[in-house]
Design brief:
Length: about 180
Amino acid sequence: MSSINLAMALVLAVLYSVGFFLLLQRSLMRILIGIVVLGHGANLLLQLVGGPPGRAPVLGVAAPEEFTDPLPQALALTAIVITFALTTYLLALGYRSWVLTGHDEVQDDIEDRRIALRGRPEGSMGEDAAEGGPESDGDDPGSAAASEEPDDAEPDEPAAVGAGSGTDVSGPTDGDGRTDGAGR
């Protein structure tokens, strides 16, 4: 590997590291910049694996051994188009988020939080039994009947979306205490 290829490999490592770091952030603008940086890294990688520059692949102009492989260049062009399309989509998504919420931070999914708070039935999938947990008494611990809560049990999650957050999710009223049909 020559020194120029080692330098290019280092540049690729930095581009991919920065791109993936930005991609894991919560701000849509940072995600957008991460996609753009990853797109540049992909283009550079395709050009690097294409080999050194050579002659145009036209028969009769040069010997076939001197030809440049056109496939990496075609793939790089495709990667540019895909990156551009994804960039415009994320720009529109970020703008819409900014207009609706005043910021571009990706919010947590309430359903994911509810599932994370929900307890796993004892011995589900045999994990607790293998760790020395309580043994089951003949019932299948992973079945729906074993994991159902009794009717008088308290639910683990709030009753409504946004409940307990201090914000009014019902929207404005029309004077009689009723909300308009659109929730606005």
